[in-house]
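wait is this the right file?? whatever heres the structure
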């Protein structure tokens, strides 16, 4: 006890020192947590201080700035909507229906298929008028020219041997002005091969002869080029036809244009899918032909403005001949498992059957799947080949493009329909860029294939008179894009189902319009068939 009393001060100092050391150790251990808490508080204060400020600005955002930003957002949204409306307006240009009440359900009236057939035939025949085109002279045309040649010989006091007895008879009567006008009118400046001669080839005033005349030695002299041209009915018919037209096509519509043969069968009325394909292919062909006509018409205006008195015709215009204009079926993955086996093949005379949806990424196309569906748009037959063309140059190559894989990889989706187009033309080679540009500006067309070759001399010496400009045979492939909204109200339900479009169920609304019960089995609001993840 005495020890404690004597050393009490020292003991207290030692306890104080130990307490200080303990407090220091505790403080050191809690420093990291305190430092972190203080840093978080500092960061929070910084964020509070910067609230309401825009990056790069020292002043806070005011209500005026917020109003301006809101107005900018509305302006951008309005521009986007305006662009969409303009695109839709362009896309639906020219969508005139042969029989408006035929869609979406042509079965509502038994007379509709017959009316559709009649209007469809007229529309096909009218396609050539868009480009002011005709086919090469037929045998009837040649016979008519032969008749005029005989009348000319009679007027000139020459004799024409009759096919029966081989005797020559004098002219019965001179031809009228109308018959004389078609003889060589406008052909004097063309040589026998149909190319400009560079000089006036008007026959001399001396009387022409139908047969070679004898010279001083009694030998027959060869016919002059003018006389040879005048007395050759086939070549004269070809030259006359060339001066009547802006472009060549086939003498029958199906030789040049896409024709849905199944639509014209009155014994087996076409189903809605076939009638819709007929309507769609007409739209596309009319657009393409209007674009080609615009190129020729612009060139014709330039000829007229040049003031040289040169008449616009196929010999001096850029678009010489439309060999083939083929429009395929929609590019779409088969959405029904039995579509490729013919059981429910659209275009084959039966409505598509409902089946289990296939995966989103279908297997590569085979001859029995999408190729058959595309060929069905031509009445189940392959494209016809013009009589003067090799299959490898026309129908086969176009058929391969229409039914083969697409270079762009685009296929029909709920918001976009893709249609392949292929064509073969004979054009002035200097106008190839203009032709492609004009087609693309007509509507939503994208070129995906361009190939061409120079025509040989033997190919130029045919019934087609192209003139003196260098010409090429060009093959063009395009994709035409349709927005389903532009014809959703008219498209038959079978087509919507085939293409996998979202369909409006009964009572639902789209763009403020009430839903239609005719499509009560719609799929709107859920994944379309064949496109499930």
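ok assuming it is, sequence goes like this
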């Amino acid at each position: 006890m005495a020890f404690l009393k004597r050393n009490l001060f020292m003991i207290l100092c030692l306890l104080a020192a130990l307490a200080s050391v303990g407090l220091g150790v505790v403080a050191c251990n809690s420093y990291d947590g305190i430092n972190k808490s203080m840093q978080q508080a500092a960061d929070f204060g910084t964020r509070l201080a910067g609230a309401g400020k825009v990056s790069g600005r020292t002043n806070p955002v005011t209500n005026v700035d917020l109003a301006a930003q809101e107005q900018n957002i509305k302006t951008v949204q309005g521009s986007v909507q305006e662009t969409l409306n303009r695109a839709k307006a362009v896309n639906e240009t020219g969508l005139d229906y042969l029989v408006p009440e035929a869609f979406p359900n042509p079965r509502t009236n038994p007379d509709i298929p017959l009316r559709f057939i009649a209007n469809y035939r007229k529309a096909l025949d009218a396609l050539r008028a868009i480009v002011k085109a005709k086919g090469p002279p037929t045998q009837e045309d040649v016979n008519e020219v032969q008749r005029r040649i005989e009348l000319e010989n009679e007027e000139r006091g020459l004799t024409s041997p009759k096919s029966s007895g081989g005797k020559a008879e004098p002219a019965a009567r001179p031809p009228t002005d109308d018959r004389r006008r078609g003889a060589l009118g406008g052909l004097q400046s063309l040589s026998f091969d149909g190319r400009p001669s560079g000089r006036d080839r008007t026959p001399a005033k001396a009387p022409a002869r139908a047969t070679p005349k004898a010279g001083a030695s009694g030998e027959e002299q060869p016919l002059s080029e003018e006389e040879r041209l005048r007395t050759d009915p086939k070549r004269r018919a070809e030259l006359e036809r060339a001066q009547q037209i802006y472009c060549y096509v086939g003498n029958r519509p199906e030789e040049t244009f896409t024709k849905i043969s199944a639509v014209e069968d009155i014994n087996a009325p076409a189903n809605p899918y076939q009638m819709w394909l007929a309507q769609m292919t007409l739209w596309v062909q009319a657009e393409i032909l209007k674009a080609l006509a615009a190129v020729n018409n612009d060139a014709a205006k330039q000829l007229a403005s040049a003031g040289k008195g040169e008449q616009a015709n196929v010999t001096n215009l850029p678009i010489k001949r439309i060999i083939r204009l083929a429009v395929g079926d929609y590019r779409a993955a088969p959405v029904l498992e039995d579509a490729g086996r013919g059981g429910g093949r659209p275009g084959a005379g039966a409505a598509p059957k409902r089946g289990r949806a296939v995966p989103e990424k279908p297997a590569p196309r085979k001859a029995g799947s999408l190729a058959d569906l595309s060929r069905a748009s031509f009445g189940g037959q392959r494209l016809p080949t013009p009589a003067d063309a090799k299959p490898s140059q026309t129908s086969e190559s176009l058929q391969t493009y229409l039914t083969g894989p697409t270079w762009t990889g685009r296929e029909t989706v709920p918001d976009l329909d893709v249609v392949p187009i292929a064509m073969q033309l004979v054009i002035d080679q200097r106008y190839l860029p203009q032709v492609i540009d004009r087609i693309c500006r007509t509507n939503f067309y994208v070129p995906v294939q361009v190939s061409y070759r120079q025509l040989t001399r033997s190919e130029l010496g045919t019934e087609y008179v192209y003139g003196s400009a260098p010409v090429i045979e060009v093959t063009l492939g395009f994709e035409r894009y349709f927005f389903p909204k532009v014809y959703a109200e008219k498209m038959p339900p079978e087509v919507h189902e085939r293409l996998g479009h979202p369909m409006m169920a009964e009572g639902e609304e789209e763009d403020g319009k009430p839903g239609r019960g005719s499509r009560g089995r719609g799929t709107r609001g859920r994944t379309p068939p064949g496109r499930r993840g």
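Confidence is low (pLDDT under 50) at residues 162-209, 335-392, 504-533. so i think its the right one actually
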